[in-house]
Amino acid sequence: MKLFENHNLKPYNTFGMEVYAGQFLQLEKPDEVSVAIEEYLRQQPYYILGGGSNTLFTRDFDGVIAHPVFEGIEKEEETADRIVLRVAAGEPWENLIQYCIKHELYGIENLTAIPGLVGSAPVQNIGAYGVEVKDTVLKVEGFAIASGKPFVLSNAECQFGYRNSVFKQQLKNDCIITYVWFQLSKRKQFTLSYQGLTKALQERELPLSLRNVSDCVRKIRDSKLPDPKIVGNGGSFFKNPVVPIEQYQELLVQYPDLVAYDAIDGGKKLSAGQLIEKAGWKGKRLGNAGTWKNQALVLVNYGGATPKEVLEVAKNIIQDVNKMFDITLEMEINRI
Ligand code: EPU
């Protein structure tokens, strides 16, 4: 492992916040994790940082940031129709997508171009275009920080929900994920429930293949979402809110074009992006922070934004959406 003192976190968060960590511990091998817990993490405040694509640092961090970078994709099992992969937490998510395309493994192609590392994927149950990572995660390996003991959690034990899991609840900031096991299909199968994706495939008259679906997803993302390498951002800043049917029906009278989906546990899931747009915030800027012109749900750093400026935009959006729709938006991003 490598330890850095007073380390600038700007390259480690896609929002591009310039904040400093007292100590920054780069974990280069999974077997360094238990030593790191004993020697560094127990003594001071700590935070486990993956690719930093879902984290908003709100101030300098007076403690140690542990950053796993160990990579590797191992095939553990293969049958006629499925393959089990054990993937190290520090592997970039997009490498796994490319591996699956190359080896013709189906299941996560709709999750193309999501920034971040494999170890973070189960934490917020990353999802896009009708697929969530929970659909392919078999189990998750890691270490509990309080006890220092290794754990293996089955899919059910991960308690996955919409942008949620046990790692954001009971185990919040109390574990380091070392490996994620995925079960992928060798049989050709696609999830085409997201209309924009089927439309894009049809318009381009492309046959259904892993490569074509993945390319279409990338094109859709490019058209809606800012590239964090160019414009700092952390993806969707808020969760899509779920409201009772009655409230949805009342809102519909005033806003007949409201986008809504049936929520799993009842109620209607609305589009936070649309609510923010209707509240007048799409593409709006306050100082150096604001929302993205093509997707109001994404808050952006237009250059040199401070955490205070980003939080000010978020606060104003929450207030205005609440005033207009009586809905309180909940942040999806981790604030540290
Ligand atoms: N919409 C607007 N105005 C906007 C943004 C969206 O009217 O400014 C409308 C769109 O026209 C569309 C609907 O809202 O009818 C949904 O928009 P979109 O398909 O872009 O998806 P989303 O619900 O805003 C979610 C995820 C994204 C994921 C997309 C695609 C959350 C919080 N976000 O966004 O995930 O890529 O669906 O499946 O669930 C992320 O989590 O960081 C993320 C980018």
List the helices and strands and how they pair.
Layout: E1 2-8, E2 20-27, H1 33-39, E3 46-48, E4 55-56, E5 61-68, E6 73-78, E7 82-88, H2 93-102, E8 127-128, E9 131-132, E10 137-144, E11 150-154, E12 175-185, H3 195-203, H4 210-224, E13 232-236, E14 242-243, H5 245-254, E15 260-262, E16 268-270, H6 272-278, E17 285-286, E18 289-292, E19 295-301, H7 307-325, E20 334-335
Parallel strand pairs: 2-5, 3-5, 4-20
Antiparallel strand pairs: 1-2, 6-7, 7-12, 8-9, 10-11, 10-12, 13-19, 14-16, 15-16, 17-18, 18-19
Helix pairs in contact: 3-4
The protein binds uridine-diphosphate-2(N-acetylglucosaminyl) butyric acid (EPU).
Question: Could you characterize what this model shows?
Answer:
The protein is an alpha+beta fold. It is built from seven helices and 20 strands. The chain has helices at 33-39, 93-102, 195-203, 210-224, 245-254, 272-278, 307-325, and strands at residues 2-8, 20-27, 46-48, 55-56, 61-68, 73-78, 82-88, 127-128, 131-132, 137-144, 150-154, 175-185, 232-236, 242-243, 260-262, 268-270, 285-286, 289-292, 295-301, 334-335. α3 (195-203) crosses α4 (210-224). The radius of gyration is 20 Å and the shape is globular. The two termini are 23 Å apart. Bound molecules: uridine-diphosphate-2(N-acetylglucosaminyl) butyric acid (EPU). Residues 128-129, 194, 224, 235-236, 239-240, 259, 271, 273-274, 277, 282, 295-297, 332 line the site of uridine-diphosphate-2(N-acetylglucosaminyl) butyric acid (EPU).
